[in-house]
Structures are given as C-alpha cells and as structure tokens.
Design goal:
mainly alpha
C-alpha cells in the first residue's frame, strides 16, 4: 500500500505550510518603504499646516535618506554574510535545524526593530533598529534557503517551477498586504503598534516552521530517504564550492543584477512617486509602488505552470532583462503614469523569479543545494546592499521634504545600468548552457529527464570525466 508521502496531496500540503514560512517576514521587510515619510519625518511638528489637502510637516523618527537606506543595506549585507554559513549548515544538519533557528531570528529581529521605534529622538533609536534589521536579515534570507531546499526536494522532476511560483506568490501576498494595509493601520494605531503587528506576523512563520519540519521528517521516513540524505550530507565539505560550474556562477550573477534593479527601487518608490508626480498622496503612492508585488502575486502560479510546460529557462532569463529596460527609461525620462511602470516591472519580475531561481537545482547536485542557494542569496544580497548604499548617496545625505528630480533621474539611470549588466550575463549563461547540453533550455519533452539526471550529477567534474573515460576504455577492450 502506498504511503501518504508518495501521493501528490502530501507534497502540496508540505508546500502550503512551507509557503507560510516567509509570509510574515516579507510583510515586515518592506514596511519601511510604506512608512518612509514617517521614518524620515520631523521629530516634532509645532506649526503643522495643510496645503491642498496635504500635510506640510510629517512627524516621525527624523532619519536622513542615507540613514533610511541603511536599514535596507544592513539587511542585505547581513544576508550576504550569514546565508553562506546558513546554506552549508542546512546541508550538514538538515532542514529542520534551519526552519527553527531562522524563523526564530525573524521573530527576534522584527521585535527589536519595533522596540527601537519607541526611542525616537534618542541616540538608541538607530542602533536598536539597525540591530533588529541585522537579526531579521540573518533569519529571513536563510529561511528562504530552507524554504527553497524543501520545495526542490519535494517537487524536483514534478511541478518544480509551479511550486517555486506558488512559494513566491505567498511571499508576495505578504508584501502586497503590507502596501495595502500598513498605511491604514499606522493612521489608526500609530507607527509603533504597526511595527509590532508585523512582528506578530513573524510568529505565524515560526508556527508554520513547526508544522513543515514535522511533515518533512515524517515524509522522508515514509519514502525511505532519511538515512540516505543524512549520509550524503555528511560528505558535504565547504571546499566543494570550488567545484560549482560556470553555468551556476553566471546564473547567480544574472539573478544579482536583475534584483539590483527591483528591491532598491521598491525601497524608495513611494517617496519617488510623491516627489515626481505631485498629485499622489502617501497612501496612493504606496499602492502604486506595491503594484510590483500585486502583479507578481497574480501571475506567479500561472507563470510557473507555463515554464514547467515550455522549459526554455535561459531564454526567459534574457527576455526578462530585455523587457525590464523600458521600465526605468520611462521612470527616468517621461511622466507616463507610474502605475504603468510598476505593473510592467511586476510582470517581468514574475517571469524572472519563476525561471531563474528554479534553475539552480538543475545545475548543482542535490547534496550541495543548500550551499549553492546560500551562495546565490549571498551574492544577490551583496549586490542589493551595494545598490542601496549607492542609491542613498545619489539621493543625498540631508533630510528634506522633497528630493530634487535630477537625483531621482540619476537613480533610475543606475537601475538601467544594472539591467544592462543582467542582459550581458544572461546571454553568456545561454551560450555556456548551449555548449553543455542546453540543460536550462530543454523544452517540455526533455525537461523531466533533465531534472532526474540532475539528481545524479556528480559534484566533481573531473570525477565525471574519469568515469566517462573508464567506460570508453571498457567498451574498447570489449
């Protein structure tokens, strides 16, 4: 009689709770973007005036644009360091170790971030909030690695892109609800209670971690794979990083350059829309900035199904980068309504996420997937962290009600440069992939076979070549 873990419904139950792991943390991640006016607002507003239904003075934490962007930069830099170690530890110690530790760090970091907001006007404000973002970054980036590792294990050779798409959709649901609800909640309850509400959502992720780790453990035992995976994990060494293929590194650079144009833009999008398009209120600007995630939420599952059916992941990666170029051109040089650009960016982002990240399990061995995901996330976050710092410098170090448009234009040109770099690396990725058997660009008839072969891919290319030579010599002798 077939075990429950061998049936399709079981892996989708695992997927559901696996998706909930990062719902709350993604809600928390972009809360500063929605509340940017409050973070950069004046400590006091003794002579508040209202002009054309707009409040001239916003009371807040008194951060400069540079300090505000540092909240995002420290998240990215922490990710860059921690996820390498986290990925290796997950490969060595397993998924259950990862989900408990990293979901707890999300709860701790978001709580400390909320606590820091109570110290406005004191020297403790920025250190507390930066420490909170540091701990939150340590947990959230690493938690995504565990999440992807669990998804890859249960869906490799099956509905892999769909599973990655649904995981992204749930995460983006958290981001979308943040852009729709946070501003309203802040108006009613204030900034401090709003940030504490985000911390409470991270507790939901911790509860999901308990459930998904139990399902993962029981499922592995029913499939008889628990012992085999532990044996493979014991063989993993940190030196194995040297043996990752050129395809993997080009894929990682493609991911990094693409995301360099997404997250730093979203971090400042609400403020940009208010400064350039004066007709929008803070709430309306937040909704428009959140349209990137709205599009991603709506499209992720269907795009995943499409890519599972069609294949051609490398081609999609190039197309995503090319079609993203006009977005920042429109924002930099025209006054086309910003909603056009944010929806457009959300569409290309959906295709990029469903084609790029699910490609990693196809070009690395299963035993080192956590390490490979950790390195990919690390390099991605290094790029995003540098981009946040560059954007902070471009926008200036002085707190002001309105940032000059020429500074915003320079920021968009910087985003364009990252997108052009993404095009270059994705084209090189396709060239290398073509020379190595077109693993990423196999169509639907050959994709399932490719994914099964990836399970048997040796870590050491030299070992693979040696085995092929021995087989050839054996055939000659026969």
């Amino acid at each position: 009689m077939a075990q429950p873990a061998e049936k399709a419904y079981y892996r989708f139950v695992v997927l559901f709770f696996n998706c909930l792991l990062t719902f709350g943390s993604y809600f928390c991640f972009d809360m500063p973007s929605v509340l940017q006016d409050q973070f950069q607002g004046n400590l006091t507003c003794p002579n508040t005036t209202v002009v054309n239904s707009t409040v001239e003075c916003v009371e807040g934490l008194g951060m400069t644009p540079q300090q505000y962007n540092l909240l995002y930069a420290i998240y990215a830099w922490t990710n860059a360091i921690v996820v390498i170690i986290a990925g290796f530890l997950i490969d060595k110690l397993g998924n259950r170790f990862g989900v408990f530790l990293f979901s707890f760090l999300c709860v701790l970091g978001s709580s400390l971030f909320a606590l820091g907001s109570h110290f406005k006007g004191t020297p403790y404000l920025l250190p507390l909030m930066l420490t909170g973002r540091l701990l939150f970054g340590s947990g959230n980036g690493s938690l995504t690695i565990v999440q992807n590792r669990i998804t890859a294990f249960w869906f490799k050779g099956k509905e892999l892109a769909l599973a990655f798409g649904l995981t992204l959709a749930f995460s983006r649901l958290g981001s979308v609800l943040n852009f729709f609800l946070t501003q309203r909640f802040e108006e009613k309850f204030g900034m401090q209670w709003t940030l504490w509400g985000g911390a409470l959502l991270c507790v939901l992720g911790f509860s999901s971690a308990i459930i998904v780790s139990t399902l993962d453990k029981v499922g592995m035992k029913q499939l008889g794979l628990d012992g085999a995976i532990q044996e493979e994990s014991r063989k993993v060494r940190i030196q194995d990083v040297k043996l990752l293929s050129l395809r993997y590194w080009l894929l990682v650079l493609t991911i990094m350059f693409f995301y360099n144009g997404i997250f730093p833009f979203i971090a400042d999008a609400s403020k940009f829309i208010q400064d350039k398009y004066s007709d929008y209120s803070q709430k309306e600007a937040s909704y428009i900035a959140g349209a990137v995630y709205d599009s991603s939420l709506v499209l992720s599952a269907s795009v995943g199904i499409l890519i599972d059916y069609v294949g051609l992941r490398g081609v999609f990666a190039v197309a995503c980068a090319v079609f993203t170029l006009p977005v920042f051109g429109l924002l930099a040089f025209t006054f086309v309504p910003p909603l056009v650009s944010t929806i457009w960016l959300g569409v290309t982002y959906s295709f990029a996420a469903a084609s790029m990240w699910p490609s990693i399990p196809l070009v690395v061995p299963q035993a080192t997937l956590g390490t490979a995901m950790g390195l990919a996330t690390s390099i991605q976050m290094i790029g995003i962290g540098v981009s946040n710092l560059v954007v902070g410098q471009i926008l200036g170090t002085k707190s002001s009600d309105k940032i000059p448009l020429w500074r915003w234009q320079r920021m968009m040109i910087f985003m364009l440069a990252n997108t052009i770099s993404c095009i270059i690396t994705s084209v090189l990725l396709n060239i290398v992939d073509y020379r190595q058997g077109s693993t990423l660009n196999k169509t639907t008839k050959r994709s399932a076979q490719t994914e099964r072969e990836a399970d048997r891919e040796p870590l050491n290319p030299a070992q693979e070549q040696s085995e092929e030579d021995e087989d050839g010599q054996h055939s000659i002798n026969s």
